[in-house]
Amino acid sequence: MDYLNLVRLGKNEWWRYCLAIIVMLVAWQLFGAIPSIILITWMIFDGDPTTQVTTDGKFQGVDTNLSFIVLMLASIAFFVGIFIAIRFIHQRKLLTLITPITKVNWILLLKGFFCWFILAVLVGLIESVLYPGRY
């Protein structure tokens, strides 16, 4: 079976897609917001006037790595929502989103990773030459 025919696997009624979208959005927006709410609550009650949330949504006075991790935790909740939608609503294996065969071709995956990595490094180098103040 080729990759494009994988769409026929699982259960594909229209209401399953609607339910899957709702599950993913709830996981992402509701459960993914919990770490941000915890950080904001901590910032409110820490007694430090320098820690605050700015009008553009940035966490001021907090380590940038901590705020980055807190914001990226919403992605984990989103991926959990994708897993629940694919596995339980559509009743497909998660692996069928990646490959039509029964196991992952790691060599091909690594080649793709390195192609994107090289492109990202090149764009980063060009940007650092054009806009050195950003780095």
Q: Choose one word for the global shape.
A: flat
The low-confidence runs, each spanning 5 or more residues with pLDDT under 50, are none
Helix content: 55-70%
Describe the biggest sheet?
2 strands, antiparallel
CA radius of gyration:
21 Å
Secondary-structure content class: mainly alpha
Give me the side-by-side strand order of the main sheet: 1-2
Distance between the termini: 47 Å
Multimerization state? single chain
Summarize the model shown.
The protein is mostly helical. The chain has helices at residues 14-31, 34-45, 64-89, 106-130; strands spanning 52-53, 59-60. A hairpin with a 5-residue loop joins strand 1 (52-53) and strand 2 (59-60).
List the helices and strands and how they pair.
Elements: H1 14-31, H2 34-45, E1 52-53, E2 59-60, H3 64-89, H4 106-130
Antiparallel strand pairs: 1-2
